[in-house]
């Protein structure tokens, strides 16, 4: 492991130890937060003893996977299209820059009216929340491709579809991972927050139920589950990104 990785582990471990001490010595009241060790115990109990865990975790994972696929693929295609139309890009750039200043969750009642209370509205919410990050990353990645690549594609007589698949996508891939990671993170937020607001199933729904019933153990156990899942997913994406960059440099 690199020195930076050891430093990150030390910071995380120190923060957990400090939080544990603050909770154990009563600086942070149990009504507000339970110690991290009890969160881990609660997560174990939820994962292996709660009859709802597998069903709700699968429900959330399925919604998240669909939302991420729509956001990543749709964002890439939209980014390629906007990049090919400079006038349209000049019109949309201010919207992209201010997108995350808009409270996207206000659209959730409208989505319920259109798609109903179910997975469709949650998937659309997650996709809407994440797709702009992928569009912006795609635009940035395409801007960094050397112009000679496109000139070569024109000389070879490649049509637009082949130009995207054989030139733009391979050349932009190393620069797309920042957008990919942000898109997945935003999709996680969108889906789970949507479940928290109004849903019949899912991890977010269980989190909301525990919160409303002052069940701190279950609430923090589920929160720890979301944190561990997000951190693990981000670690996998980082490892994939490093491999892509290493191959690209060769």
Write the layout of secondary structure elements.
Elements (H helix, E strand, L loop, with lengths): L2 H22 L11 H14 L3 H32 L1 H13 L9 H8 L3 H25 L3 H9 L4 H38 L5 H10 L3 H34 L1
Helix pairs in contact: 2-10, 3-6, 3-8, 5-6, 6-8, 8-9, 8-10, 9-10
Rounded mean pLDDT score: 84
The percentage of residues in β strands lies in: under 5%
Total beta strands: 0
CATH class of the largest domain: Mainly Alpha
Radius of gyration: 22 Å
Whole-number total of structural domains: 2
Shape: globular
- Major sheet summary line: none
Distance N to C terminus? 22 Å
What percent of residues adopt helix (DSSP H or I)? Answer: over 70%
CATH H-level superfamily title of the largest domain: MetI-like
SS-based structural class?
A: mainly alpha
Output the helix-strand order: HHHHHHHHHH
**Number of H- or I-type helical stretches:** 10
Report the CATH topology name of the largest domain.
Answer: MetI-like fold
Which parts are unreliable, with pLDDT below 50 for 5 consecutive residues or more?
Answer: none
CATH architecture of the largest domain: Orthogonal Bundle
């Amino acid at each position: 492991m690199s020195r930076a990785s050891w430093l990150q582990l030390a910071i995380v471990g120190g923060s957990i130890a400090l939080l544990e001490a603050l909770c154990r010595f009563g600086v942070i009241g149990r009504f507000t937060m339970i110690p991290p060790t009890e969160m881990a115990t609660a997560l174990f109990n939820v994962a292996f003893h709660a009859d709802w865990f597998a069903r709700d975790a699968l429900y959330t994972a399925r919604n998240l996977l669909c939302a991420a696929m729509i956001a990543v693929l749709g964002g890439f295609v939209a980014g390629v299209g906007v990049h090919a139309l400079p006038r349209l890009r000049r019109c949309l750039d201010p919207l992209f820059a201010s997108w995350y200043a808009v409270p996207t969750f206000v659209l959730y009642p409208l989505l319920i009216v259109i798609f109903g209370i179910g997975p469709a509205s949650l998937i659309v919410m997650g996709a809407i929340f994440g797709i702009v990050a992928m569009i912006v990353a795609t635009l940035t990645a395409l801007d960094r491709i050397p112009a000679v690549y496109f000139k070569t594609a024109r000389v070879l007589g490649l049509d637009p579809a082949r130009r995207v698949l054989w030139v733009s996508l391979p050349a932009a891939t190393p620069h797309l991972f920042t957008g990919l990671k942000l898109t997945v993170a935003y999709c996680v937020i969108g889906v789970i927050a949507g479940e928290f607001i109004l849903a019949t199933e899912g991890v977010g729904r269980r989190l909301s139920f525990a919160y409303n019933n002052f069940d701190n153990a279950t609430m923090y156990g589920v929160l720890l589950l979301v944190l561990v899942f997000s951190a693990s997913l981000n670690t996998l994406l980082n490892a994939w990104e490093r491999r892509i960059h290493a191959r690209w440099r060769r």
